[in-house]
Sequence to fold (439 residues):
Amino acid sequence: MFDDRSARPPLAERMRPAILEEFIGQDEIVGPETLLRRSIESDELRSIILWGPPGSGKTTLARIIAARTSARFVSFSAVLSGIKEVQQVMRSAEEHRRAYGRRTVLFVDEIHRFNRAQQDAFLPYVERGDIILIGATTENPSFEVNSALLSRSRVYVLRPLQPAHIEALIRRALSDQRGLADSLLELPDELIAHLARASQGDARVAYNVLELLASAVPAGPDRIRHVRPEDLSDALQRPSPRYDATGEEHFNLISALHKSLRNSDPQAAVYWLVRMLESGEDPLYIARRMVRFASEDAGLADPQALGIALAAKDAVHFLGMPEGALALAEAAVYLACSPRSNAITIAYEEAAADVRSGANPPVPYHLRNPSTGLMARLGYGEGYLSAHDTEEGVAEMDCLPVELAGRCYYRPTERGFEKTLRERLAGLAAIRGRTRDQR
Fold:
């Protein structure tokens, strides 16, 4: 007997909600009495950008809008379409409005894949009202969508679905005739909860796993397909954390690592480090960021921090991965536990401000090296005092230009080794003061 189940659309497509009442999650933007929901229900929608991760409901929401609007609805994907297709759709929308007085709702999936010139093609038609644009993107619109187009649209942020949302979708799929009701697939509550967590907010992942289980788990004598923990583990395989090494998530994660280190939280630092490494981030990139942190945030409060960060970088370069991961973890924990000081950063920035001001006086003659006889006759090196020739190893000699006399760029804190440096600088100042008095 012919089994037509293989000819059916995928489970994720069959279970796609057709009305807002079936839509699960994203209550903050499409819940009752929200602005977007009211505009959909009253068919008064304006151009919008739907930004969210895969499986959060962007395409589903666009299709619900298509079913509710009286406007002409056109959908295409930026992956499959080029500027020629865009121009054809725009001309058609303009003609349709002139002929029938109806606007076109244009859904552009993965709009971030269009370049700036292609996105520019939408602008005049959005401004004239020929089209209402619905753009869907997984990337930050601030970076990926033309600013002029962005200013004419409202951005709605869709969050990853919560495990409770995924659980509700799983149960619906197991009991709904559009889904797997006829497969008699049965998952215990604890496996449903596990699948919901492992889906990482992506409903499509859960649907794909359910569909695999329905086709692979044999039916028992009672015709029910009882899913065992090992069946679910096999279907899930090893979940890969969602990550784009060149996209926003890359910068979000390295920011989380850096701020966890800065806030002296080794637990969070290790977590974000592992999260990046397990997602495929370049370990040397992480090592470089740790070297920067050692100078920028630990500074001279812990002079060993830079050496440990550099040692971790060398270990990764020498050992490779995965062995080098432990060196990075060791460095992350050490840096998170080290005392904090950005005194070096402040010193550099203040000195840089003076240099960039443009008023850079010449090097004082007593600090210049008289490499030739002419230089010596011109006064190079005249008045130079060697610290080694003094009793306490400190010469009473200004090393800044006269115009910058008294500038204090480096001001050590009372934390870590900088407390010792602070005391040392105070002692040096006292020595110079005594020497000056004696003169």
